[in-house]
């Protein structure tokens, strides 16, 4: 699994950091997502999918390969 | 019903509106048939707006998630509230009606205060202290007590007012303005009149804190603004502050009283929460899914396109039925069932897309803290009147019981370091 971020759309909702704080953080000055781990461990992959599904601004893209 | 607008006498069905006296926790029963047979259908709304009503989960999510085709320009509630006039030009700082980069500029300025998870973590002790203090105050009164007026509203008022640094004596101002804003009975002019004292107060506050900034949200927004590419004007800062105050208290307070009522009417679920207050976070999320956003949200079509195969034209209005979407079996096969341990899932109770509720993380924190604390400190909480005597609000965008008369045997003391 590989995670890509389209930060230009991010509204700083915090939904990803709520679901998967090991994978996503937020910048202090505008709340925009910071990707902590583009290549999550197997036990984090379910959280990654949930964050991608629940992100209100469709910022998180998940690639199966790689 | 014949529409009051438009120039041809097209007979349209009316937008099904929540009738909580009949269905205290569920959307109107018509929605089940609409999802099955008419997922996109023309309706007339209470303010005379004609719109495409969208009721299936996948379609609602698609509309809210694609702001390029479905704009916020008319305002999210102009179909049910006369006070939200979708035809007016967008005011300076009126970000709920902006799209794209203009809107993003405001969201990212509010995010550090309302939706940065590190910030939310820092606010947890403050919210716990406010909830415990309010329960102590309530415990000193002989029950029955109206938990909406005496607990839920004071808690959410205190949280947002503490954050923005609004002293206790000034809080009536924003409560009055919020009441005017969320009632469907007032015209845009009347709502504007009700807002003026609040805007004047906040304008003076922005002036004072610009000169002498403190640690509160308004001061922090002023200070941070100066470091941005395009600093915010006083009017824009007033609008953001007003939005936080107005949206921040009665929506959450009503969700607290409506949610507690739903739990009292689902005693098995309440017992599970009492046995394990650690379920409070999933219970809070489930109540937002189960009860959220009664009247639906309005959008405007920006280009000729389709929703679920139904052609819609540029300029058409669309109403997405959030409650219906959240009960759709495509989201949860047992969506009409209240389950306090249900994994959160991609429900639409806070909306979806770039305009998703800006206060959602604060609302989650408040709801979770209230549910865990009430379950632990008042295990004997129960209604003080028969359920049939509960009256529900009508003619408003914020649903829930008018009052929540409850009683108990004993209120337990707050735990050391919070419940």
UniProtKB/TrEMBL annotation, chain A:
GO terms for molecular function: 3 iron, 4 sulfur cluster binding; electron transfer activity; iron ion binding. The keyword Protein transport does not apply. InterPro entries: 3Fe4S_ferredoxin (IPR001080), Fe-S_cluster_ET (IPR051269). The keyword Electron transport applies. Its cofactor is [3Fe-4S] cluster. Keywords: 3Fe-4S, Electron transport, Iron, Iron-sulfur, Metal-binding, Transport. Pfam families: Fer4_13 (PF13370). Ferredoxins are iron-sulfur proteins that transfer electrons in a wide variety of metabolic reactions. This is Ferredoxin.
